[in-house]
TrEMBL record:
Organism in which the protein naturally occurs: Anaeramoeba ignava (Anaerobic marine amoeba)
PANTHER family, alphabetized: SPECKLE-TYPE POZ PROTEIN
Residues annotated as domain BTB: 26-92
Protein name as annotated: BTB domain-containing protein
Species classification: Eukaryota, Metamonada, Anaeramoebidae, Anaeramoeba
Superkingdom of this protein's organism: Eukaryota
PROSITE patterns: BTB (PS50097)
Coiled-coil positions: none
Transmembrane segments: none
Length: 137
């Protein structure tokens, strides 16, 4: 039974990945980076609103787009891969605090918990000051 469940999960991840990376049925645009030269990411309202309280609240208006200039393309793509199919890339310790802030912004509580645990497990004597300097108090 576990193999079947893994297969179902793999297929679900593949299907949602195809949705995110394809062009079918996308009904909403997220613009990131700067307003003079924004980068557009097309997405599905239903998926965003079902996975993120931030988007659930924001998408209640009849708008076809949102501008989030506080985020860059890479950050937004990383969060969208988590929203769509539960995958998040922890490339290095440098982006953990940034991802934590983004997870808080989008009200992704499970992701926030995952990142907090990752940060706690990553802190040691040699990198403590690096983490501490990035935290805004």
């Amino acid at each position: 039974m576990k193999n079947l469940e893994k297969k179902v999960t793999k297929n679900l991840i593949k299907d949602y990945s195809n949705l995110l990376n394809g062009n079918s049925f996308k009904d909403f645009s997220i613009f990131v980076e700067n307003k003079s030269n924004p980068f557009e990411i097309k997405v599905h309202k239903s998926i965003l609103s079902s996975r993120s309280p931030f988007f659930n609240e924001s998408l209640r208006q009849e708008s076809l787009s949102i501008f989030l200039n506080q985020f860059n393309k890479k950050e937004m793509e990383s969060i969208l891969s988590y929203i769509y199919y539960g995958n998040i890339s922890f490339e290095n310790q440098e982006n953990l605090i940034q991802l934590l802030e983004i997870s808080i912004y989008f009200k992704l509580n499970l992701l926030k918990e995952i990142i907090q645990k990752k940060i706690l497990n990553s802190i040691n004597y040699s990198n403590f000051s690096n983490f501490y300097s990035k935290i805004e108090i």
